[in-house]
From TrEMBL:
<feature type="transmembrane region" description="Helical">
    <location>
        <begin position="137"/>
        <end position="160"/>
    </location>
</feature>
<dbReference type="Pfam" id="PF01569">
    <property type="entry name" value="PAP2"/>
</dbReference>
<keyword id="KW-0312">Gluconeogenesis</keyword>
<feature type="transmembrane region" description="Helical">
    <location>
        <begin position="56"/>
        <end position="76"/>
    </location>
</feature>
<dbReference type="GO" id="GO:0004346">
    <property type="term" value="F:glucose-6-phosphatase activity"/>
</dbReference>
<feature type="domain" description="Phosphatidic acid phosphatase type 2/haloperoxidase">
    <location>
        <begin position="53"/>
        <end position="183"/>
    </location>
</feature>
<keyword id="KW-0378">Hydrolase</keyword>
<dbReference type="GO" id="GO:0051156">
    <property type="term" value="P:glucose 6-phosphate metabolic process"/>
</dbReference>
<keyword id="KW-0256">Endoplasmic reticulum</keyword>
<feature type="transmembrane region" description="Helical">
    <location>
        <begin position="194"/>
        <end position="213"/>
    </location>
</feature>
<dbReference type="InterPro" id="IPR036938">
    <property type="entry name" value="PAP2/HPO_sf"/>
</dbReference>
<comment type="pathway">
    <text>Carbohydrate biosynthesis; gluconeogenesis.</text>
</comment>
<protein>
    <recommendedName>
        <fullName>Glucose-6-phosphatase 3</fullName>
        <ecNumber>3.1.3.9</ecNumber>
    </recommendedName>
</protein>
<dbReference type="InterPro" id="IPR000326">
    <property type="entry name" value="PAP2/HPO"/>
</dbReference>
<dbReference type="InterPro" id="IPR016275">
    <property type="entry name" value="Glucose-6-phosphatase"/>
</dbReference>
<feature type="transmembrane region" description="Helical">
    <location>
        <begin position="111"/>
        <end position="130"/>
    </location>
</feature>
<feature type="binding site">
    <location>
        <position position="157"/>
    </location>
    <ligand>
        <name>substrate</name>
    </ligand>
</feature>
């Protein structure tokens, strides 16, 4: 592993020195690859184009991120920004606000969730292209863009010292497999009880796994201590990057998905213009929901409120905003 870690730091150094003029682009890409973006950006955008694809994005994002957390607990995995300090290395590299994540590094969550979620989107686009053109060449274009996206997101994670190359590669391969498998098993039309069981089942499973690993002597707080020790700035350590934040986000989104489907089965049927309006208002709503400040102490209160915040995401996108648009557009027609 030392060879892989040393090579990874060398690659990060080369990237930072050789592409310094593209620094802002790398930071934007790493934000777009954040698992949170799958819920707040990719899901609403996809949903208002194709409901089934949007639902698949939400489902795949939640399950793949939850599994990523579990894999990180079991596989551990150093992160470059603290490994450099622990090994007294002095490469010409620097950190960024997105660098200092507190969970273990392997596999990369950004690469894993991006690979899983965008596989769903790309295959849906490819099917439409093939149905309309019957051209294999044109159908291959989305898959080439998909591969390019994974490369760029992976390089951005190496650039900011969040991951080693082998962690990015492992995340991308695992995410691709999950995208293929989960994308074919989307739970449309399931009763609320199903989502209640899935949501709290995954939450309790994560707590149980954490408890068992702790009981057998595995210190799951090791990465948090290292992140706090070697992060350049204290304010860059955020509770919403902790593993349990990911778990509560995933479980909250799944419960919200179930509530949305039970509240309005099949969603709202809207023409193109109202759908575009719904996307705009949903995006604004999610922006403000995401920016809601939450108390970080006690931690249990933070996680509960974080859970509720992401319960609201599917409700806003699937029911509240399109329902309001449907009501007002129909009212105008009647008037």
């Amino acid at each position: 592993m030392e060879i892989l870690h040393t090579y990874g730091v060398w690659m990060a150094e080369r990237l930072q020195l050789g592409t310094k003029s593209y620094e802002n682009l790398w930071l934007v890409v790493t934000h777009l690859g954040d698992p949170k973006a799958a819920f707040l950006l990719v899901f609403p955008f996809t949903y208002f184009i194709s409901k089934r694809a949007g639902i698949a994005v939400l489902w795949v994002a939640a399950i793949s991120e939850w599994l990523n957390v579990v894999l990180k607990w079991m596989l551990f995995g150093e992160r470059p920004f603290w490994w450099i300090g622990e090994n007294n290395l002095l490469p010409k590299v620097h950190q960024f606000p997105s660098t200092c994540e507190t969970g273990p590094g392997s596999p990369s969550g950004h690469a894993m969730v991006t690979a899983a979620v965008w596989w769903v989107v790309i295959t849906a686009v490819a099917r439409v292209i093939y149905a309309r053109t019957n051209s294999v060449l044109l159908t291959a274009v989305p898959y080439l863009l998909y591969a390019a996206l994974l490369v760029v997101v992976g390089l951005s994670r190496i650039y900011i010292l969040a991951h080693f190359p082998h962690q990015v590669f492992a995340g991308a391969i695992t995410g691709l497999i999950l995208g293929v498998v989960l994308g074919q098993r989307v739970p449309e039309g399931r009763p609320l009880l199903f989502f209640f069981k899935i949501s709290f089942g995954l939450l309790l499973s994560a707590v149980l796994i954490h408890f068992v690993l702790k009981e057998i002597g595995i210190n799951l707080s090791w990465s948090i201590a290292l992140a706090k020790k070697w992060c350049s700035r204290t304010e860059w350590i955020r509770l919403d990057t902790a593993p349990f934040s990911s778990v509560t986000r995933d479980c909250g989104a799944l419960l919200g998905f179930g509530l949305a489907q039970s509240w309005r089965p099949g969603g709202w049927s809207l023409p193109l213009a109202p759908r575009a309006l719904s996307l705009a208002f949903s995006s604004m709503g999610l922006y403000h929901v995401n920016r809601l400040p939450l108390p970080v102490k006690p931690h249990l209160l933070f996680y509960c409120l974080f859970f509720v915040k992401f319960v609201m995401v599917p409700l806003l996108v699937m029911v509240i905003v399109p329902g309001a648009i449907h009501f007002f557009t129909n009212k105008r027609k009647r008037d």
